[in-house]
TrEMBL record:
Protein name according to UniProt: diguanylate cyclase
Catalytic activity, EC: 2.7.7.65
GO CC annotations, alphabetized: plasma membrane
Cofactor(s) needed: Mg(2+)
GO molecular function: diguanylate cyclase activity
Domain GGDEF: from-to ranges: 481-615
């Protein structure tokens, strides 16, 4: 499809595409030469909007102080030339540019005319009008001059025109700018122009509304989640918003109308910030440092370069900085696209990031297609860059949410696994601990039993006997519970040992203990080995007779038992001494033992195998 001059003009007129000036200039150069007609514009009540490109001629001069008279002389001398192509984009140039056009008003015509320069970034614009009656008028405009000098408070440079009398009006427009020299002049009626602008204003407002919403939403997310990716997103969105405010002229119109110098500086700073913040966001989001360190290094270089250019904008000429920043956009965009594709395999959220980036590039491509005449011009295609940028921002926000969800889920899974492992280990350890405690308890029980029991016979040992005796004495005093003490000694046990051996003697002692244990326990008493072949019984009882009866039972049980060793019957019998400790006893406890001992001694003396009571 051939290049149409009209499409180039539309492309060049974009106030949002300062950074695409290189492409537009290229398009303009590729266009076929137009047929220029320097005819005056015939004002027709129905012609509501006329591009002045085909009615204009230009004169480019290095004389920065050339006056209107100089321009008129140059026009008379034929120094004004037709405009190449149908675009009023003259690229970056250091010269002063003069434009000439004429307007013819007939007798019927009404007023309310408006000359719009549909590009907000021209530094100085001076408009001279020569009326049919010879009067001349001058208007000053441009973004280096206070906003209040404009006829209407509009982001584009504009001059209201009242053509009082019929006839031919000559116009000379002088433009100087460090920005790209785009001078798309439109002759229109102000009421008509502002009426038509409503949809544009709505679109731009919607774009900034979406951007502001996403910015606030992600800022809140950053504050609550503390993931710095949200902060970098916010910085990127804010930078892009700031840049578009500058490039559309809205920043100058609405925010700093009295600071033209700052307005120009803001264009450069916001471009530098946009490139740096987008590149940094990409690095962080795709975690390039660990996944693609080489690409990360390249992106870092772009960040440093854009920051240096941002700082340089304070010192170096505008036209120099803006060219470098514009050129940086291309490698940055391509590199970001490449790393997003590269990251697809390693990092799931990269696909959302890629979609976001493609959305922006699609927006730019649709816009370019409109410029090339491949797509019709409608509100959707005309603002496709805004739509692409908004879609990019929304998708990036989704990508961020997806990324944090994915990382949170991965963390949660790791936590669950760690928790399960911990629980399993705790269970294992608890089990081990339980077992150890169990073993310890058993060992303690055994130890306690060992310390209380006699090793040979299993009945209480001497120490336990002492303890039990003291407890019995306490119970007697405090609870009025009398008791008796039985001292028991195996008779002629030396003989057993001597005749049958010590082992047989042990067996005999165990046998006697077992014989005694039954009746003693039945009577509620406690049996202990007092030492050697001697036993003792503590018997809670209300009288001495009961104690003596038990002693007799015990004696008979032993006497009547039969214990054989190697076929021979062991001669076993016991002597018992009984002492009773009644409730009224006041003598020391030791007396009780002595009395029982003495009773036992008497039993021995009187022939053994008998019970004697010291009652
Ligand atoms: N096999 C064995 N013998 C013991 C044990 N403790 C003490 N004897 C023995 O018991 C005997 C006690 O002897 P004696 O004190 O002379 O008294 P006896 O021979 O029983 O004579 P009487 O008490 O007067 O009837 C000793 O021969 C001790 O060695 C023991 O644990 N095992």
């Amino acid at each position: 499809m051939p290049w149409s001059t009209a499409t180039c003009s539309r492309w060049a007129r974009s106030s949002t595409c300062e950074w695409l000036w290189a492409l537009t200039t290229l398009l303009a150069l590729l266009s076929p030469l137009p047929t220029w007609a320097s005819t005056a514009l015939q004002l027709d009540r129905n012609a509501l909007r006329t591009d002045l490109v085909s009615h204009s001629a230009t004169w480019s001069t290095t004389q920065s102080n050339a006056s209107l008279e100089d321009a008129r002389a140059a026009f008379s001398n034929g120094q004004f030339a037709p405009i190449l192509g149908d675009s009023m984009n003259f690229g970056f140039r250091d010269e002063v540019l003069w434009l000439h056009f004429a307007v013819e008003r007939d007798a019927r015509d009404a007023s309310d005319w408006l000359l719009m320069l549909e590009y907000p970034l021209i530094d100085y614009v001076d408009l001279y009008r020569l009326d049919p009656d010879g009067q001349s008028h001058h208007w000053a405009g441009g973004d280096r001059r206070p906003f209040s000098e404009r006829s209407f408070s509009h982001r584009y440079i504009n001059f209201s025109q009242e053509l009082h009398a019929p006839g031919r009006y000559e116009f000379y427009l002088r433009a100087r700018s460090q920005s790209s020299m785009q001078i798309p002049l439109v002759w229109t009626r102000s009421a008509e122009y502002f009426e038509r602008s409503q949809l544009t204003i709505l679109g731009i407002g919607a774009y900034f509304g979406i951007l502001a919403g996403l910015l606030a939403y992600n800022l809140i997310l950053y504050i609550s989640v503390r993931d710095r990716n949200f902060l970098f997103y916010v910085l990127y969105a804010a930078s892009v918003g700031w840049m578009l405010l500058n490039l559309t002229g809205l920043g100058f119109q609405l925010l700093w109308p009295n600071a033209p110098d700052w307005n120009n500086l803001a264009v450069l700073l916001s471009m530098a910030c946009s490139i740096a913040s987008m590149t940094h966001f990409t690095r962080r989001f795709l975690n390039l440092q660990s996944h693609h360190p080489r690409s990360d290094l390249l992106l870092q270089l772009i960040i440093y370069a854009s920051l240096v250019m941002g700082a340089a904008s304070l010192l170096l000429p505008y036209h120099w900085v803006v060219r470098v920043l514009t050129l940086m956009v291309f490698p940055a965009a391509l590199l970001i696209l490449a790393v997003a594709i590269q990251s697809l395999r390693q990092f799931a959220p990269a696909k959302y990031f890629l979609w976001a980036w493609i959305a922006l590039l699609l927006g730019i491509m649709v816009y370019a297609s409109v410029a090339l005449g491949w797509l019709p011009k409608n509100p959707f295609t005309e603002y496709s860059i805004h739509i692409g940028s908004a879609a990019e921002m929304v998708l990036l926000s989704f990508a961020l949410a997806y990324r944090i969800n994915m990382l949170t889920e991965a963390n949660r899974r790791r936590l669950v696994i760690a928790h399960e492992q911990l629980e399993a280990r705790v269970r294992e350890r608890t089990h081990e601990l339980d077992e150890t405690l169990h073993r310890l308890e058993a060992a303690n029980r055994q130890l306690r039993d060992f310390s209380r029991q006699d090793g040979l016979t299993g009945v209480l040992n001497r120490r336990s006997f002492e303890h039990s005796l003291n407890r019995a004495e306490e119970a007697r005093v405090r609870e009025d519970r009398a008791f008796a003490l039985l001292m028991i000694d195996a008779d002629r046990f030396k003989e057993v040992n001597d005749r049958f051996g010590h082992q047989a003697g042990d067996v005999a002692l165990i046998h006697i203990a077992q014989l005694l244990q039954g009746p003693v326990q039945s009577a509620g008493g406690q049996l202990a080995r007092y030492g050697g072949e001697e036993f003792a019984v503590i018997l809670p009882t209300v009288d001495a007779a009961t104690a003596k009866d038990l002693a007799e039972v015990l004696r008979r049980v032993v006497e009547q038992s039969e214990l054989r060793h190697e076929g021979e019957l062991l001669p076993l019998s016991i002597s018992v001494g009984v002492a009773f400790r009644g409730l009224d006893a006041a003598d020391p406890l030791a007396h009780l033992v002595r009395r029982a001992d003495e009773a036992l001694y008497r039993a021995k003396q009187t022939g053994r195998n008998r019970t004697v009571g010291d009652l």
